[in-house]
Amino acid sequence: MQEISVLFVGLVVLYTVIAVADQISIQCGIYTPLFAATFVGFLLGDLQTGLIIGATLQLMTLGVATYGGATVPDYLSGAIMGTTYAIISGEGAEYGIALAIPIGLLLTQMDILGRMCNSFFQHYADRCAEKGDYKGVERANLLGFLPWALSRVIPVMVGLIFGEAVVNSINAFIPVWFMTGLKTAGAILPAMGMAILMRYLPLKKYYAYFIIGFVMLAYAGSMFSVMAAALLGLALAAIHYSRTKERAGAAVVSENGMIRIDDEEVEIDG
Fold first, then answer.
1. Quick one: what percent of the chain has pLDDT higher than 90?
2. Average pLDDT in the 123-147 region?
C-alpha cells in the first residue's frame, strides 16, 4: 500500500485553498472534481485513476450550482479523498468513485457551517459600509474567505493524515461482497452521469447527431477516440450553423417592405 507523505498533504491542502478561492471568484475550473482528482492522481503517480474518478464525478456535478445560496455536495473534497483512498489502497477507480460521493454528501454540513460563519464577516461589512469605511468592507470580504477555505481544508487534512489508517480499517472491516457492491455501484455511476447530461441536451431535435456519435464510439471504438467524435461533432455543428444562417438570410422581410434575398433587397408590390 502506498504511503502518504507530509509533502503530499501540504500540496493537496494548498491546492484545496486555491480551489476554494477559484470557486467563489473567477471559476476557471480548478475547483471542479475533474481537476482535483487529476491533480491528486498526478501527485500519487497514477494519473489514469485520477482522470477516471474526476471525469465520472464531473458528470455528476453537471447543472449543479449554489443558486440562491443553496448547498450542494462537496465534490471537491470527495474527489480528493476518494482518489487518494483508491490509489493508496490499490482497489481501483470504482472504489474511489463509490467513496467520493458519500464523502461529498456528508461534507455538505461543513459547507453550511462555513456559510454561517461567513455571515459574521458580511454583517461586519454592512456596518463598515454604513460608516463609509471602504477599507473595512474590503477587509471583511477578505476575511470571509477563511470559513469557506477551512470548511474544505479541515476535512481534507484530517482525511489525508489518517487516510492510511482509515483505508486499512475499511479494508479489514468491510466484507468482500460489500466491497464488490461498492465497485459495481461505482461502475454504474458514469451511465447515470451520462443520463443526467442527456436530459439537458435537445436530443429530440438533434437525435441524428447523437446517433452518429453513438455508432462511432460503440461500433468503431478501436478506430475512433472521444476526441475524434468531438471534432466530428464540431464539424457537423459548423455545417448545421452555416446552413441555418444561409436559410435565414435567403428571405427576410424588413420593416420597410423589402425582402432580402441573398443579401440583396427587392421591393414587394402591395
1. 4
2. 85
